[in-house]
Amino acid sequence: EDQVTQSPEALRLQEGESSSLNCSYTVSGLRGLFWYRQDPGKGPEFLFTLYSAGEEKEKERLKATLTKKESFLHITAPKPEDSATYLCAVQAGGGSYIPTFGRGTSLIVHP
Amino acid sequence: NAGVTQTPKFQVLKTGQSMTLQCAQDMNHEYMSWYRQDPGMGLRLIHYSVGAGITDQGEVPNGYNVSRSTTEDFPLRLLSAAPSQTSVYFCASSYSMGGLYEQYFGPGTRLTVT
After folding, report:
1. Which residues contact B58 (CB under 8 A, 6 or more apart)?
2. Chain B contact present for A97, CB below 8 A
3. What is the Cα gyration radius of chain B?
4. Listed residue (A6, A9, A41) closest to A24, CA to CA
């Protein structure tokens, strides 16, 4: 059974204090790993897709990396507007369409 | 494009009542899904569809029905509401990008069953 575990569950940072969120996974043949951002009261919003170990993607202050067992979402010099819940999901190979989601990391950035 | 739209935004039901949550997308995506999101449980898949006329069950399908008569619409029906169905419901659509399916979510429907 595919599993996705995100840590920590919650993270509080001061503005400008860089940190990383972790997504560890077990899946039968990873097809792709996704990161989403979810603001309170809204639906998740797609951020990145990572396809293979060693790959990196960047968007503003966010950088996602992927290894064979986990992915990291690095947040550099965060701002209060980066506060959100970040969700990780994996899609298995073999023609699977259904992703498996982690429970998310709630990030709060204090000014 | 409006993307994925959901109605209503909020709904209160009494136990035993039925209702339909509406979902529509204007991106011509083949794939559509319904999730529920509960505190500490993450997103759980209820039902999904790989095209008009084709639906299948997800992780938590009991108490819910779906149909997909058009590419654009994917309504979720609660047959007889129960307090355990109090949740936030998200509809999502996606299409294949080389076998990968990035999901586009609607704004959600917050349902309370009393």
Report:
1. A98, B33, B34, B44, B45, B46, B47, B48
2. yes
3. 13
4. A6
* Predicted pLDDT of residue A1: 81
Cα dist from B99 to A43, A74, B4, B102, whole Å: 23, 26, 21, 10
Contact between B105 and B77 under an 8 Å Cβ cutoff? The reply is no
pLDDT at B82: 97
pLDDT digits (tens, 9 = 90+) for B37-87: 998 888 999 999 999 999 999 999 999 999 999 999 999 999 999 999 999
Which two tokens mark A98?
């259904």
User: Are B40 and A43 within 8 A, CB to CB?
Assistant: no
Task: Show the tokens assigned to A25.
Answer: 């996974």
CA torsion B106→A76→A33→B39, rounded to 10°?
-50
pLDDT tens string A24-61: 999 888 899 999 999 999 999 999 999 899 999 999 99
Q: Which residue of chain B has the CA closest to A96?
A: B99
- Is pLDDT above 90 for B97? no
Per-residue CA distances from A59 to A16, A21, A37, A76, A100 (Å): 16, 15, 12, 11, 23
Which residue, chain included where needed, has tokens 């319904």?
B34
Do the Cβ atoms of B106 and A101 come within 8 Å?
A: no
Q: Count of CB atoms within 10 A of residue A34's CB?
A: 24
